[in-house]
Amino acid sequence: MNYTIEARWFRSFLLVYVPFLLVSLAVLWALGSLAVRTYFVVAFLGLLVTSEILPPADSKTVWWKRLQWVKAGGWVVLLYILVERVSMVLQ
């Protein structure tokens, strides 16, 4: 198959991130800590690490711009989870 450099970069990103999601799901389940919020935090941290380790050579690619929006939304959800947890502790 003849992939462009952009497509190869995206494919390598997915080849790292998707197995991370599956392994983290299995580990959380094995530890008995599987909850939606816990899985979101672990998956979001994995997304942040993976996107910092495997950035594309050209930051103007379409998938990279969309990923930045996904990361911004993830920060909003993470902030909501943290505020909710802190408010539960303070009550």
Tell me what you see in this structure.
The chain is mainly alpha-helical and 91 residues long. It has one domain (5-90). The chain contains three helices and no strands. The radius of gyration is 16 Å and the shape is flat. The protein starts with a helix and ends with a helix.
Q: Which class do the helix and strand fractions yield?
A: mainly alpha
Label the overall shape: flat
The largest pleated sheet is described as: none
Binned strand content: under 5%
Radius of gyration: 16 Å
Note the gap between the termini: 58 Å
Strand elements, count: 0
Average pLDDT confidence is 91
Helix content: over 70%
The low-confidence parts are none
How many structural domains can be distinguished in the coordinates? 1
Number of helices: 3
What string gives the helices and strands in order?
HHH
Describe the protein's topology.
Blueprint lengths: L4 H27 L4 H18 L8 H29 L1
Keywords summarizing the entry:
91 residues, mainly alpha, 3 helices, 81% helix
Q: What's the quick description here?
A:
With 91 residues, the protein is mainly alpha-helical. The chain contains three helices and no strands. The mean pLDDT is 91.
